[in-house]
Design brief:
Distance between the termini: 15 Å
Order of helices and strands: EHEEHEEEEEHEE
Oligomer: single chain
Largest sheet: 7 strands, mixed
Number of domains: 1
Number of strands: 10
CATH topology: Tetrahydropterin Synthase, Chain A
């Protein structure tokens, strides 16, 4: 059995800025109005014979969208970004906690952004491809106790007709 949640119709959306360091066109800070589609395959179970209750999935994904909304998405593991005052070999989300702003350099450009305006992501890129994997991993963590699930997919769309889907088979 497969369940589908259409991100546009379900309100699974966020607007955010990001940068793909050193990319020809996406190397400047720019933004998208994202929406997230979800697909989960598994066996029906429980009192109501659900794969997973839609309300549970939408709640998890809406919270993730809210955490990214109106922020600059910063992938901390990108080797083209040099973070001021940070040990490149020991980067983690926690290592940024003592800083009020995020300072980084990409080639000749230097950025200083208030930390409250950013979301630090444990990713190499903030591309739709990487964000789709991020959403799947967060859903997987939240749904570990649902042993009936066979796969989780998320499609992060940068607009209508343009998105990337990642699937994790369990």
């Amino acid at each position: 059995m497969k369940i589908l949640i259409n991100g546009i119709n379900a309100g699974l959306r966020f607007s955010a800025a990001h940068i793909i360091p050193a990319h020809e066109t996406c190397g400047c800070i720019h933004g998208h109005s994202y929406f997230v589609d979800i697909e989960i395959k598994g066996e029906k179970e429980g009192e109501y014979n659900f794969v997973v209750d839609f309300k549970i999935i939408k709640s998890i994904v809406k919270e993730l969208c809210y955490s990214l909304d109106h922020r600059l998405l910063i992938p901390i593991y990108n080797d083209k970004m040099d973070f001021k005052g940070m040990d490149k070999d020991d980067l983690s989300i926690e290592s940024f906690l003592k800083h009020d702003s995020i300072q980084f350099k990409i080639e000749d450009k230097v950025y200083t952004i208030p930390k409250d305006d950013c979301v630090l992501l444990p990713l190499k890129y903030s591309s739709a491809e990487s964000l789709s994997e991020y959403f799947v991993e967060k859903l997987y963590d939240a749904l570990k106790n649902h042993k009936n699930i066979k796969s989780i997919s998320a499609c992060v769309n940068e607009g209508i007709g343009q998105g990337a889907m990642f699937t994790k088979n369990l």
